[in-house]
Sequence to fold (65 residues):
Amino acid sequence: MKKSPIASLTAPLSLTQVSSGMIYCMVLFLVLLFSVITGWGSQFEGSEGKPISNPQEPANQSAVM
Fold:
């Protein structure tokens, strides 16, 4: 197989060089996974779209059933 001209100008990457660049992606994925599982950073809305601090507040009793 014939090598491309660019391949002869660059050195091959080692596993440690590639994995050091992947740390950010792995940590970002772990933070996403943690926030999905635990609800970290979630915001709740009450009646009329107002933000509430406790999602266990009583529901609006005037809702039509």
Remarks:
- The two ends are 72 Å apart (CA to CA).
